Amino acid sequence: MGSTATPAAPHVRIAIIGSGFGGIGLGVRLRQAGQTDFVILERAGDVGGTWRDNTYPGCACDVPSHLYSFSFAPNPHWPRSFSGQPHIRAYLEDVTDRFGLRPHIRTGHEVVEARWDPAQLRWTVRTTATTYTCDILVSAAGALADPVIPDIPGLDGFPGQVFHSSRWNHDHDLAGERVAVIGTGASAIQIIPAVQPLVQRLVVFQRTPAWVMPRADRPITRLEQWLFRTIPATQKLARAGVYLTRESMVGAFVRYPALLQAATVVARAHLRRAVRDPELRAKLTPDYVMGCKRILLSNDYYPALSRPNVDVVASGLQEVRGSTLVAADGTTHDVDTVVFATGFHVTDMPIANRIYDGAGRSLADHWRDGMSALRGTTVTGFPNFFLIVGPNTGLGHSSMIYMIESQLNYILSALRHLDSTGSAALEPRRSAQDAWNARLQQRMRRTVWARGGCASWYLDARGCNTTLWPGSTLSFRAATRRIDPAEYHLFPARTPTA
Length: 498
Ligand code: N01
What we know:
Keywords: FAD, Flavoprotein, Monooxygenase, NADP, Oxidoreductase. This is Monooxygenase. This protein is of the alpha/beta class. Helices cover 30% and strands 18% of the residues. The chain has helices at 21-32, 50-53, 85-98, 186-195, 222-230, 232-255, 259-274, 278-284, 301-305, 363-366, 400-421, 430-444, 473-479; strands at residues 11-17, 38-41, 105-106, 111-117, 122-127, 131-139, 161-164, 178-182, 201-205, 212-213, 296-297, 310-313, 317-321, 324-327, 332-334, 337-340, 355-356, 385-387, 423-428, 488-492. The strands form 5 sheets. Strands 1, 2, 3, 4, 5, 6, 17 and 18 form an 8-stranded mixed β-sheet that branches. It has a 5-stranded parallel β-sheet with strand order 7-16-8-9-12, with helices on one face. α1 crosses α11. Bound molecules: 3-acetylpyridine adenine dinucleotide. The site of 3-acetylpyridine adenine dinucleotide has 26 residues, from α4. 3-acetylpyridine adenine dinucleotide (N01) is lined by residues 60-62, 144, 150, 165, 182-188, 190, 205, 207-208, 294, 316-317, 341-344, 455, 457.
């Protein structure tokens, strides 16, 4: 199939990597701004990003639905206050259709390499299907996209099924099996209650117990849905209420870490109520400052762990010998299937190995000493390159969609600046990026991550938090409202040569 001649690479103004919330959101905003010359390059067969990939039993969001959606695309049909993965995925597909994005989406196009061409002032983007050139490259590849399976000695020789939480094997029936779940993060605490009733034995490898708070989930009533449909302002009001509650709570926790003490009282009571066995309760009691790792929300996790067919191994998985899992505490456990709920490549995101500056240095190489960007979105050395969910834009407890929309404002403003100045490209000045990050890390010193004494995907190998935003989401919104021209170097448009 295909011709033997190599056609010139098609040129588009903007190439976006990824069709999760970031890529879809940018696509909508571009179309609303009258821009149609863009493609969204998607490695999988459909849109949805992390909400397409994570199909594990029990998968749901722990941010209320009214807030975990685009401000420009409210959904009056959310069935619950915290939506499940199928509904969020369906929402993203609906937004894709409603805003006419399908013609822009290129599925099966995994970006293999993107290089800035300093002579042509444009990017060359090689994908598994087509090579494009583009003026502007946006990575919306996401931070929770590439799973980590730890390098466990002997794992290759395990005779049963092994899979990661974000690559669930639905062809494999866990009913009646002995199953190990490795990890006790946000994914594991949803998987465990969902699979516990099915399996003969569930062995949970818990290296670090999580702080778990009650989850105030409930169905959204028909009356509410009717109200949201007929008087859209009521849904806006509900959204604003959820936003302000979360914002003030999280803001207060970040600013006044002493308040976390009060929250630990609630979490301990939650544990005490659900787990009667003092030995199990001791195992499940965290020993680090709350908030250092993501605070988890669940009402069914502790009850599931208390069931007689569950063993909690208070230790990491260290080795595999045949079908026996060996914990770091020396205990051994025979199982049929291993589920790794062990998280994602966040501070070492693989896409950074595929994006090269004009001198042939990768973004990963630029980030050898830690990820950094200007306002989480642009990077010195990479003209006309934007990151959605870049360094220090993550959140523990409010909606990432709000952060993403802030970044979309910033990107749209940069595009307007290019147009209004007639420039070919813009690149953040080193001084601006350094000053931004110095201020950010200064604020970080006052937060729990500087004092928590825990390992977390929030922190990189140096123990530096390059993933989360340390302030209020409102302050991020203000910081990304529009680009500050003083922070950028402009490249004049090339005069065409005859
Ligand atoms: O991954 P994680 P996740 N032996 O990196 C453990 C979002 N999310 O997929 O803490 C035993 O948080 C590791 O232990 P430790 C959300 O942003 C949201 O659960 O490092 N255990 C940890 O317990 C979240 O933060 C939702 O000691 C081992 C776990 O694996 C992010 O995704 C739902 C181990 C990894 O936890 C990632 O969450 C799901 C070993 N050898 C995800 N190696 C909601 O909105 C690692 N671990 C609800």
